[in-house]
């Protein structure tokens, strides 16, 4: 039989979370963000769950080709734009919309020969300081694009750096609004956190919202709020089983480096899951795990193919875990118990995004409706 580890993708949760984003911004169109292979879920696996979106946004031309191959005929947006002038040929052929965030991309458009003009999203660097034209250069960039016959329509776009925290969006939004005052065109400014927390703030207009992590069931502002607070459901579950049992005595150690020492007699279980499956090697003792739906903790160091868990809380819950018992690393246990991916990630000093994206190719994946 195959090794007992498996991931599940929940299409009903994807549909639900997309609907939650739409309900939060009822006057806006919604991008389904499927960059990074749909945050590790797999573009082909999530497509049926997300086809209710108004468009798909991603990074790579290869990803865009995959979405078109699935039969999608609506908008597809390249969030980082094109990386080479030849990319514009594929944009013309596939009808791709693309972000323009630096002058060289405008130069390439000016030289591009196309029968169908392009829809472009002109990006402002309003304080994130990654991509985009600075405010003082933004209107000149807009004027250059507006003068090109290769450009059909210009959407105004920026990205908030602190929509998920106490600093908020006020300063960036004010700068964006002041700079784009009286410029025509639709606007796209709200990511997951802005969509859920700020969409009704004064002065915020987002004709297109870009919910990324929220669509995949993770809270964009964890730990201030968890996924349940926003009415989100987990879209990925990672489960395995116990493949070994050990009875420890006080003073016994566990795993490489003897990173955990038992302070009393205790029973531990060995789980078929390790960092080669995408679990975090640096997850410390205490990271939450579910065994037979009961919350317990990881003990010792995560190795390539295995990790170890404390079985005492499971016994205390009146269960008798044994070889083959179900272990939920994140997501939904067989009995319906939930372990939020954000909570697991926080224990390991990372974010839910990384756990999703790190799921290893060797882990079998089942899509469930």
Automatic annotation (TrEMBL):
Positions that bind substrate: 130, 304
Gene Ontology molecular-function annotations: alanine racemase activity; pyridoxal phosphate binding
Annotated Gene3D superfamilies: Alanine racemase, Lyase, Ornithine Decarboxylase, Chain A, domain 1
Keywords: Isomerase, Pyridoxal phosphate
Any one GO biological process: D-alanine biosynthetic process
Stored CDD domains: PLPDE_III_AR_proteobact
EC number, UniProt record: 5.1.1.1
Domain Alanine racemase C-terminal: 235-368
Reported cofactor(s): pyridoxal 5'-phosphate
Name of the protein: Alanine racemase
Lineage of the organism: Bacteria, Pseudomonadati, Pseudomonadota, Betaproteobacteria, Burkholderiales
